[in-house]
Amino acid sequence: MSQESLHGKWDISSSDEEDCPPVRKNFQSSKCSNAPITSKTELCKNNAEKSLGNQGIPLCVKNERDSSASLMTNYRMEERPKEQFPTNTQTIQSSWNSEASNIVGSVKQDVCKSEPSWQRSPSVKRKNELPDSGWCLSSSDEESAEEHKDRSVKKQNPPSKKVKYESESFSNDLKDLSEDDFDSCFRAFHETNSFRFYLTKVTGLQNEHNCSALHIKDILSPLFGTLKSSVQFNYCIDINWLIQQYPLEFRSKPLLIVHGEKRESKARLHEEAHPYENIRLCQAKLDIAFGTHHTKMMLLLYEEGFRVVILTANLIKADWHQKTQGIWMSPLYPKLPEGSCETSGESNTNFKHDLIEYLSSYGSPTLNEWINIIKEYDLSETRVYLIASTPGRFQGAQKENWGLLKFKKLLREYAKPIPGAESWPIIGQFSSIGSMGADKTKWLTSEFQHSLVTLGKDVKYTTNHECPLHLVYPTVENVRTSLEGYPAGGSLPYSIQTAQKQQWLHAYFHSWSADITGRTHAMPHIKTYMRASPDFKELAWFLVTSANLSKAAWGAMEKNNTQLMIRSYELGVLFLPSTFNMTVFSIEKTPFLGAKSTSLSFPVPFDLPPQKYTSKDKPWIWNIPHTSAPDTNGNIWVPS
Fold first, then answer.
1. Residue of 294, 321, 470, 521 marked active site
2. Among 132, 187, 273, 431, which is 20 to 30 Å from 263 by CA?
3. The CATH number of the domain covering residues in 385-588
């Protein structure tokens, strides 16, 4: 079956209805693929060396998908002998399993653990396993203290799996920037960064574009505090890689990992944690179908204080290699004086209350311990608002505590009205797209845009004065010419099954461009939403979040708009000018370049105004072929 549209002719094998059993997309991989993509010669050499050291253990990467349903794809990229190719072209092969009903309830392959799983070396062969859909109804199942103690006792014997550590405290991917350079360069920027909003370092960029950016090793380094214990919330986690990002002196400190894995994939995560007696695991409740634990947050307890980090990157190497990611890092919160009441240390943005409320939504005894820790600290210096989603069906006042309605409530109560604001466009930028419905009124321009257009208590939304809506999502050409090439599309899981049902949505699309930050060719995994002036020189507000453009992430109304239903855990922070004693934010012209700024200009991470798709542009769709031209690394993308 094929379909013609403005954005090309799509060949499709089957449709994918919203109420069909969902299938989670998994990518085949091997630890040999952890090597950064440099030259083919170095790549093969690195793969051969690493595959020997890791005994060819099969791994997989679970890619972010908020679409309510999709086909399962096992991607496998092989570098074939040169004589088989008339040109310098590699082929990314994928095999489709169209029998979705047979996949549901089957075994999900290993938890995501390395960069997007394209097999790079023909010497490493993979055996295919059917992934578990992971959509069973279950309650939280965290590791009890007794289980942890029992696991620790067993570790007195040498583990069968050796754990190798790296000695460097800072990013190995960016050796050009020494620790001293990072200290002086970053601190100069950090001291003047009132927003505490950063991008991640990107391998392959000039130092000036990484000077004010952070790698995960930088976040966890002793420069920010003497770590006592930490919590990592995330969607996709490679425990062995994660441990190596901590400095040597912190690698044995207590670490709690909050995840959404189930059944076999959960068992594999426990197995991966087994060699580390300092790690405990907590499974998040996912009792509504199609939901995911998508939140990405760190809680860092130091001898000197406490810190919260909210970000968009998974805990896998690929997400910290050549992608554009966002980070908000809180101030170092001091401990409250002895005898302070539990409500002390609150910020003007109610950040402490909202963080505790979000952690309480997990219903976890282990996280309750961290709630008690947070109550002991002064979070009053926080200048951002927390916007969280948690799975459930919410009525009455409860429905304004989460997701889209929490966003709307904050804009109504704390954003300042702006004259002529009806012409100020809303800009949404994301890396995954869910099903919006048969037309724009089903959710996008009704529930979604209706919430985001709110600006103060007295401003009313009317369909007659619908503000512009620009949606930034990479084109096929963006992906093809990126640093990673077509493999970057593995983290942009917009499926043909969803796209073909909402071609009307593509009229809103604008291409990814970030020349001002030097990151045009680092594909976005960051998710941002903002309200800008028509000349794109000012902002009414800015949000960085884990939430993609989907009902599962933001929530959808039910029962005649009396009930909000959310499927997934999400987390983000909202910047409002009022908390910085401003009416609007001016937009930084050269953001993230490490220069000291004397103004409160906001560092938007991509070019404004966004550029609308041309007649030749097509949105990146990950499960159809892309063969018209090889990518920057000589690859083509061929699902078969």
1. 294
2. 431
3. 3.30.870.10
The CATH code of domain 170-353 reads 3.30.870.10
Instruction: Region of 444 please: left (phi>0), alpha (psi -120 to 50) or beta.
Output: alpha
- Is there a contact between 119 and 77 (Cβ–Cβ < 8 Å)? yes
Cα–Cα distance between 297 and 283 in angstroms, integer? Answer: 15
User: What's the count of helices (H) and strands (E) in the chain, helices before strands?
Assistant: 14, 26
Name the residue among 531, 536, 507 with its Cα closest to residue 422.
Answer: 531
Measure the CA angle with vertex 421, ends 415 and 427; round to 5°: 80
Lookup: tokens for 318: 């690929």
pLDDT per position as a tens digit, 532-564: 999 999 999 999 999 999 999 999 999 999 999
The residues, any chain, with a CB within 8 Å of residue 329's CB and separated by 6 or more, are: 196, 198, 214, 219, 224, 307, 308, 309
d(CA 395, CA 366): 28
CA 321, distance to chain mean position in Å, is 14
Phi, then psi, of 387 in degrees rounded to 5: -120, 115
CA distances (Å), origin 362, targets 265, 284, 492, 565: 20, 6, 28, 16
Given a cut of 70, whether residue 585 has pLDDT beyond it is yes
**pLDDT, mean of residues 193-212:** 90
Give the pLDDT of residue 208. Answer: 85
Task: Report how far residue 400's alpha carbon sits from residue 380's, in angstroms, rounded to the nearest whole number.
Answer: 23
Give 263: exposed, middle or buried? Use CB within 10 Å, 0-12, 13-18, 19+: middle
CB 148 within 8 A of CB 254: no
Question: In terms of Cα–Cα distance, which of 509, 453, 508 is closest to 476?
Answer: 509
pLDDT of residue 190: 58
CA distances from 349 to 346, 452, 516, 574 (A): 8, 18, 31, 10
> What residue ranges of the chain are covered by domains with CATH 3.30.870.10?
170-353, 385-588
Tokens of 314: 């998974």
What are 363-382's pLDDT values in tens digits?
Answer: 999 999 999 999 999 999 99
Least Cα distance to 244 among 165, 163, 317, 171 occurs for: 165
Is the pLDDT assigned to residue 83 strictly greater than 80? no
Q: What is the DSSP string of 233-278?
A: E-SSB-HHHHHHHS-GGGTTS-EEEEE---HHHHHHHHHHHTT-TT
Retrieve residue 583's tokens: 């009416």
CA distance 301 to 229: 5
CB 586 within 8 A of CB 603: no
Task: Give the DSSP letter string of 390-432.
Answer: -SEEEEGGGGGGSHHHHHHHHHHHHSPP-TTGGGSPEEEE-S-
Q: How confident is the model at residue 33 (pLDDT cuts 50, 70, 90)?
A: very low
CA 210 to chain CA centroid, Å, is 19
Q: List Cα–Cα distances, 424 to 65, 405, 513, 593, in angstroms.
A: 30, 21, 21, 27
585 in Cβ contact with 491 (< 8 Å): no
Q: Is 294 considered catalytic here?
A: yes
Q: Which two tokens stand for residue 252?
A: 């044995």
Residue 103 near residue 130, CB atoms below 8 Å: yes
